[in-house]
Amino acid sequence: MNFDRLKALASTIKNMSIMNIDRIINIFIVIILVSVLFFYESSQPETVQPMLAEPEVTQSEIVKPKPALPATINPKPVESEVVQSDAVKPKSELLTVEDVCRKTAKKLASVEYKECDIGLVDTGARSVHGIPILMKEYPPKAPTKSQSKVLLIGGIHGDEYSSVSVVYKWLNKLERHHSGLFHWKIIPLLNPDGLLQKKSQRINANGVDLNRNFPTHDWEKQSQHYWVKRTSRDPRRYPGRAPLSEPESRWLHEQIKEFKPDVIVAVHAPYGVLDFDGPPIAPKRLGQLYLNLLGAYPGSLGNYAGIEQGIPVVTIELKYAGIMPTKKEISNIWVDMVSWLKKNTPHKIAEPLPKLVTPEPIQAGPS
């Protein structure tokens, strides 16, 4: 009897030892887990928590959209509208004078950046693609009064490279030798979109020939008739949907009205002649370019300003569009032009303007 009791007691003690060991192990495991968790949390950097001073950048506000405002409240649209406008704004609209000079120098091997970076100003006018139209003015030198006002234009047609380059050479000549005898306004590149694209073209970005877009008499009828019948709808000579439909020609038209030049000199290529529209006496020769009247075309600058407005228009047609004249020839044209300006401007004798004549050229017409 006593033996059975001892046996039962030993079994009970054994079971209790096993249970205590299990409990001890469980407690030890819990202690280890709590310690690991404590050390993990204490080791994390404080920067994980968002700063109270900048609640607008917390994760909760980034993920959760703000509730819609009631219809009676007008939210401020200014910031979002500005962002959208900047997103869709053409890159060219942000170009500076320096940017245009770099692009021009990169496009034309005959023009160095320093020849463009001579104080040309952004006129505020923009091409179709938003490229600034640059200009340099050489005003009278006090107390001397200028004899006459001269408007000099290059690059009306974007693929006539030499017409731009030569004007830059003359700009740099004036930088050194401007005496104040004439009041100059010089636009070396009227059609930047035409020149500065990968493949330069005569027309502007809207496909319009700027030298057929000026508001000559009966433009709607004559310009379309000439384009269809004489040029067989040549896209290089498309006059546009309306006179002055293009920002470039519209701006030049305003410049003519405001500046009131005594003479306009337009540089073109590649016919190798000298053309003239309006009073008084045309120059017979500038350098090796001899006078050869090419006629007046509907919408042309010579027709509008020379024949209809009575402003002498000298059109210099260089021999090549892609090849520069020699330095000597560039200088000779300039010297002869200045000599003619001294003798013939300003024109003061009133003469009846010639009747508008649209010639029958053997080709579509230069300039």
What key attributes describe this structure?
367 residues; alpha/beta; Aminopeptidase; 2 domains; 7-stranded mixed beta sheet; two-stranded antiparallel ribbon; 40% helix; 12% strand
In short:
The protein has 367 residues and is α/β, with parallel strands linked by helices. 40% of the residues lie in helices and 12% in strands.
Descriptive account of the structure:
- This protein has helices at residues 2-43, 59-63, 78-88, 97-107, 113-116, 161-177, 192-196, 219-230, 247-259, 301-308, 327-344, and strands at residues 121-126, 132-138, 148-153, 182-187, 263-268, 273-277, 285-286, 289-290, 313-317.
- The relative contact order is 0.10.
- It is of the alpha/beta class and 367 residues long.
- The termini are far apart.
- Strands 1-2-4-3-5-9-6 form a seven-stranded mixed beta sheet. A two-stranded antiparallel ribbon has the order 7-8.
- The longest helix is centred in the N-terminal third of the chain and has 42 residues, at 2-43.
- It contains eleven helices and nine strands.
- It has two domains: 1-38; 95-344, Zn peptidases (Aminopeptidase).
Low-confidence spans: pLDDT under 50, at least 5 residues?
A: 40-89, 349-354
The helix/strand class is alpha/beta
β-strand amount: 5-15%
In oligomeric terms, what are we looking at?
A: single chain
How many E-type strands?
Answer: 9
Helix-strand pattern, N to C? HHHHHEEEHEHHHEEEEHEH
* Rg calculated over all Cα atoms: 40 Å
CATH fold node name of the largest domain: Aminopeptidase
